[in-house]
Design brief:
Layout lengths: L1 E3 L2 E3 L3 E3 L9 E3 L1 E2 L2 E2 L9 E4 L12 E10 L4 E2 L2 E2 L5 E8 L5 E8 L6 E6 L5 H4 E6 L5 E4 L5 E4 L3 E5 L6 E6 L3 E9 L2 E8 L4 E10 L2 E7 L7 E3 L6 E6 L5 E5 L4 E5 L6 E5 L5 E5 L2 E5 L5 E5 L5 E6 L2 H4 L11 E8 L3 E7 L18 E3 L2 E3 L7 E10 L4
Antiparallel strand pairs: 1-2, 3-4, 5-6, 7-8, 8-36, 9-10, 11-12, 12-13, 13-14, 15-16, 16-17, 17-18, 19-20, 20-21, 21-22, 21-23, 24-25, 25-26, 26-27, 28-29, 29-30, 30-31, 32-33, 33-36, 34-35
Length: 387
């Protein structure tokens, strides 16, 4: 593949399956798009070609459903038939053992956050803790494992087990949050979707807790008005301290220097959240249900599509409201992305636990034959590819 001033010249590539579970297929690449022929169920691969010369390992991904809500089951004594719903926020623990999933529809017209063990195959047992009563539009963790929750008009800070609230930081409408160590200080960044601003807080630590937050930076005031911003959502920081933030209704992604003085942007339709994977920036695209890939210089490299049919998921989701929301990277291993309002296909499910809702249909076992299961969290795992 060659590149001339940012325009990709793409050609058809042969993909050799890395394991017997993955069938051999040819992937046809088009500029800024990607087509996937059917692969064997639960071993679905997608190929992404990056701009030369930055072709990196992990350009192929194997897709799976990491976690979903099995409607026929209960968790901590609560039925999942109607709640929770609308999983948008995702974060991963610093040891990569836990996912935190934020839902903004649950009991009492509030949301909840779940702490999910990644290596647990049973969806019920994977949920080790539930924090009710928070809207959880966006989530982050810090290097000590503490959890940061965008709850409507505040950022809430909890311990890793979601048992103790340490601090509440008042905001307006915050839907993006990230943390970093800068010069030994723990720093919090959050976006404001209505004001078009990014706030920077220096956090004070007391033992295992965060005890205070002070606005600081961006020429002293701690608040940066992003020029041209319309609807700021998910936010992440790269290794150089630059801020990447999605603008949903503005249909773009911003890259902002640490001092806030250098602001660049690129057009990305319905940009909801961003994730940083070394030299790649992944952008989830809400109801477009796709993922754009950018390079560090804010060039659009391509689009990665979810193999919905092979995963036996409805591409349109519940009431055609399915979208891709929160996205988080496990460095060198792939990423997780939330399928908000997503559901399994054909009003039944091959996922979850076998129970009295399970049965064979035309010789195939469905774990839930009566209704769909909901809110799948998708996992894309990097796959080694043959030369």
């Amino acid at each position: 593949m060659t590149t001339d001033k940012g325009t990709d010249s793409l050609r058809a590539l042969n993909f050799r399956a890395p394991s017997p579970k993955m069938s051999r297929t040819t992937i046809s690449m088009l500029p800024l798009s990607l087509k996937i022929r059917p692969l064997r169920l639960f071993a679905c691969a997608a190929w992404l070609v990056l701009t030369a010369p930055a072709v990196l390992a992990g350009d192929a991904y194997k897709w799976s459903v990491q976690y979903l809500l099995d409607n026929s089951r209960t968790v901590f004594g609560r039925s999942q038939k109607v709640s929770p719903r609308h999983n948008r926020g995702l974060a991963i623990s610093p040891d990569a053992k836990y996912l935190y999933a934020g839902y903004h529809h649950s009991f009492g017209n509030t949301g909840e956050v779940r702490r999910i063990r990644i290596d647990a195959a049973d969806y019920d047992r994977a949920t080790e803790a539930i924090l009710p009563g928070v809207l959880a539009k966006a989530l982050a963790t810090d290097d000590k494992g503490r959890v940061y929750i965008c709850d409507s008009a505040a950022v809430l800070i909890y311990d890793a087990e979601l048992e103790q609230r340490q601090l509440r930081i008042p905001t307006t409408v915050c839907e993006g949050v990230a943390t970093a160590r800068e010069g030994g200080q723990l720093v919090l960044y959050c976006s404001d979707r209505e004001e078009g601003t990014i706030s920077r807080y220096v956090l004070q630590e007391s033992g295992a807790n965060v005890s205070a937050a002070t606005l600081s930076g961006f020429d002293g005031g701690g608040v940066l008005k992003v020029p041209g911003a319309y609807d700021l959502r998910g936010l992440k920081l790269d290794a150089n301290g630059r801020i990447w933030v999605a603008d949903l209704k503005g249909n773009k992604v911003f890259r902002i220097s640490p001092d806030g003085k250098d602001v660049k942007s690129v057009a990305v339709p319905l940009a909801m959240d961003v994730a940083i994977d070394k030299e790649r920036i992944l952008v989830s695209r809400s109801t477009d249900r796709a993922i754009n890939v950018l390079d560090p210089e804010v060039n659009l490299l391509g689009t990665l599509n979810v193999p919905w049919e092979e995963l036996e998921l409805s591409p349109f989701g519940n009431n055609r409201n399915g979208s891709l929301g929160g996205i988080v990277v496990v460095p060198g291993k792939g990423f997780f992305v939330a399928n908000e309002a997503g559901q399994t296909a054909n009003q039944r499910s091959t996922y979850g636990r076998i129970d009295d809702h399970s049965d064979f249909v035309n010789g195939k076992m469905y774990r839930d034959v009566f209704a769909d299961d909901n809110e799948p969290i998708l996992r894309a795992t990097e796959v080694e590819t043959a030369p």
